[in-house]
From TrEMBL:
UniProt protein name: Putative lipoprotein
Tree of life domain: Bacteria
Protein keywords: Lipoprotein
Keyword Lipoprotein: yes
Keyword match Transport: no
Amino acid sequence: MIHVRVGLMVVLASVLAMPLAGCKIVQIADQQAAEPLGFDAAKYAAGLWADRALPHFSDSARPVAEVLASINSDFERAGNDFGYRSGEGSPWSFIVSGAGEVLAKNTESRAGILDVAVEGLADPVVLQIGPVIRGNAVRDALPFVSFQDFTNQLEYADAGKALTALALEGVASSVETVAVGDTVRFTGALSLASASDRQQVTLVALDVVAP
């Protein structure tokens, strides 16, 4: 019996001492890198931005003075006349354009804004200039970007952030140089559930008009 045990121990020791021929040790980081990536929001947004999104904003924009006046007068009618929404009960999205003098530039908050005086409106139009942008007005204004196209809410939210980032990137140089007293032309989107919501336009285009 003792000889059997000794024999087993010798065999076991030999097995443990053998090199792991044919086996490959993969580091955890390498394994994770080799796994397929999930949804790439930046790639998704870039794939439709220049060819579909920007032309849609340009072609669909309505005068901001007309749209805001309608919103403040009869919100549901304004939605039907000027807006888009993905379904009943969803916020209305409006694409607007306009021009006017910059009355104020607030960059003290990371949610920076421009106040622009537009002819025909008693109150200035508020333009979001970031770097923090509230809401997903850019995404929500695009009828070809639907929640149904995504696996889950997280992907849909990430797509919205990526689209907003491209919009912000496109106006960054103008935002940096614009000053109070300048005249600007702009195009952007706002998403509202009611007329009492914060009426702030998320910029898609901003140009400083030469004096």
